[in-house]
Please model this.
Amino acid sequence: MAKPFLVTGAAGKTGRYAVRQLLERDAPVRALVHRADARSDELAAAGAEVVVANMLDLAAVSAATRDVTAAYFAYPIIPGLLEATAIFAEAAAESGVGAIVNMSQISARRDAVSNAARQHWLAERVLDWSPVAVTHLRPTFFAEWLISFYQPDGTLQLPFGDGRHAPIAAEDQARVITAILRDPARHAGQVYRLFGAEELNHQQIAAEMSAALGREVRYVPVSLDTFSEQLRDKGFGEHIIQHLRAVAIDYRNGVFAGTNDVVRSIGGSEPMTVREFVTRNKQFYDDRSTIAYW
Model:
């Protein structure tokens, strides 16, 4: 019997799409989730082997990596990334995992002001030291941000000034992830920046959203302090607030800008435009109570 692919963060944005896309190709999948809930039930119903494990538990992660052919590693923006990465690298090496696809971020660098971004850069280095072949992915801001930060009054209130980026959907990222998992040798040692179809500023993004929804969406620039307070009011922790403040400055300075053909050349299809993404996800804008992206 074929060895499974391991997808961590399998109930998250990129993870659940990666699970589905692998299953659609008749590949066996072990889906690692932090807790059992309706999302993990959906993965199991689709045919995945669901494993509930804490990524900071070496024994549990070692069990999850056993008899795995290749693995996708993703960790949320919460404290613990470096420990989780070291645990995963050790478990993967001990278990003989053939390759790892690592979800990093475009702002990952040695001198990043964001603690999380700097930790992602260090996590890349930890995986590079591992004997397991690794491919790093560095996406720009997810298109899903356009749902998470959409306000009931039809505004996007963000501290991004006139900066630009090409929003990339989690589904398109998953196409790259699954393609690399299925042919890892070709991509070993590579670092891929991931972008969506079109680079836009937030005024242009709001115009595309307006066209998709048939009602006005406005971009309202706010200060970093206002943004931070809005995040606190929504229950965000200080780790992610510090990260989002820092990357907002990075964004203004062009760190998140750019385009390339990685989604098409590796993932096999053109990435979604902003208008296509919003049209596909219109129900989230029509019913704000359904939103669960964070």
Summary: The longest helix spans residues 81-95.
